[in-house]
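Narrative of activities, Objective 1.

The group set out to show that a structural description can be obtained from nothing but a protein's sequence at a throughput compatible with the screening campaign. Below is one input-output pair from the validation batch, recorded exactly as produced.
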Amino acid sequence: MSSRELVVLGTSSAVPTKSRNHNGYLLRWDGFGVLFDPGEGTQRQMVRAGVSAHDVNAICLTHFHGDHCLGVPGVVQRIARDRVAHPVSAVFPRSGTEYWRRLRHATLFNDTQVIAERPVAGDVQEVAADGAPFTLTARRLCHSVESYGYRIEEPGGITMLPDRLAAYGIAGPLVGRLQREGRVTAPGGRTVTLEECGVPRPGQKVAFVMDTRLCDAIKPLADGADLLVIESTFLDADAGPAEEYGHLTARQAGRIAADAGVRRLVLTHFSERYGAEDEPRFAEEAAAAYAGDIVTARDLVRVPVPSRHRPGSAARP
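Output recorded for this entry:
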């Protein structure tokens, strides 16, 4: 059975708080794990969340501000200590290669050879993540330093319809052959195609958008996403500082989700200037633009990727 969920390890921005760790997000996708932006304390948060170094197949950094990468040394050393044997792709902005290597080799330890560097550059790049059952695309955002957003997208497929298979007399090994080859000869002698026995199944999509002000790259990252994980550092009253420092507000995040036809919106990366009493306002401001499912992320929660069944539009006029 497939399991696709976001394990939230940290939700603060530049400064951690008593209730919010620095960033950290593990996307679990049918046994393949992508760890986004491991900030300081991520290794411990993984333990608290019940996930291990063996669950990590790729590490994706959006940029090299500390709240998005200071957990790299601990995660890398845990991968080595726990003798993770599978390849682990390390994806990061090429312009920050010097910082990656400082983090990667921050202290003495018995090193591991399983980590393969996959630096990204330019406005858009498809990334070769070892063993990934989906495509991983990076797009350059607009922050005070070079920053990238990521989009995960699996290929579309066909959902088999049992009644149609039965009508054509296709059963047992013939079903697998039909799926592999696209056509089979039915017991009655008729050639039956895959399209006659199934309906198109769209591939699922997840977008991860961290530190950025509004820019053109966000829409293709978020377009049609089943799950959008996006920074909402500020409330709308602080839209000025958000623009100045290269961040988004919760209202802007909601508008992005509505315009892109997102199915589930996860707000995160909250400024430490806001207290617990302000938390409901993030969802309220996002909901002013977006009528879909909104999750105000908290440390250690798990957010399922919505199933492939698609309800009506979530955008408000």
